[in-house]
Design a protein that fits this description.
This protein has 134 residues and is an alpha+beta fold. It contains three helices and eight strands, in the order βαββββαβαββ. A hairpin with a 4-residue loop joins strand 4 and strand 5. Helix 2 runs parallel beside helix 3.
Length: 134
C-alpha cells in the first residue's frame, strides 16, 4: 500500500472548502492551486510579482513537508486573470524552475477572489531517498 497523506498550510480556505494544500501519494506530490495569500495572516499584496513570490514560498513549504523541492517538480500550471501580469513574474518563476524545466501551462481565467492575480499549481515526483528542499 502506498503512502497517502494530506499536507495542510493552515489556510482557512482549506477548512472552508475542504481540500489540502498538497497530497502526497507514494512518490507523487500534488500541490493545489496556490495563490498569493500569506496564509498565516490571510493577507495578500496588490503586486502580482509579490503574489508570485508568496505562492512559491507556500509551495516550497508544502514540497519540503513531502521531502522534496522545486528540483522534483515535473508539471506547473499558472493561472492568471490578466495575461499582461504573466511576463513581470518570469524572473521569479525562472529562479525556481529555470534549471528544472518542468512541463508548463499558462491559462487566463477568473480566480476566486478579485485580489488574486496569480495562482500556481505544481506536481512533483519524489526521488528515492530525496531530501531536496530547494
Amino acid at each position: 500500500m502506498t503512502e497517502r497523506r494530506a499536507i495542510l498550510s493552515g489556510s482557512t480556505f482549506e477548512e472552508q472548502i475542504g481540500y489540502a494544500r498538497a497530497v502526497l501519494d507514494g512518490d507523487w506530490v500534488h500541490v493545489s492551486g496556490t495563490t498569493g495569500f500569506d496564509y498565516a495572516t490571510m493577507t495578500i499584496s496588490a503586486d502580482v510579482v509579490e503574489q508570485a513570490e508568496q505562492c512559491l514560498r507556500t509551495i516550497a513549504a508544502a514540497l519540503a513537508e513531502a521531502d522534496c523541492g522545486f528540483a522534483d517538480v515535473v508539471r506547473v500550471r499558472y493561472l492568471l486573470p490578466d495575461r499582461a501580469d504573466f511576463e513581470p513574474c518570469w524572473p521569479v518563476l525562472r529562479r525556481c524552475f529555470g534549471e528544472v524545466r518542468p512541463a508548463a501551462t499558462m491559462q487566463v481565467c477568473g480566480l476566486a477572489d478579485p485580489r488574486m492575480r496569480i495562482e500556481i499549481e505544481v506536481t512533483a515526483r519524489r526521488r528515492t531517498g530525496s531530501t531536496n528542499t530547494e
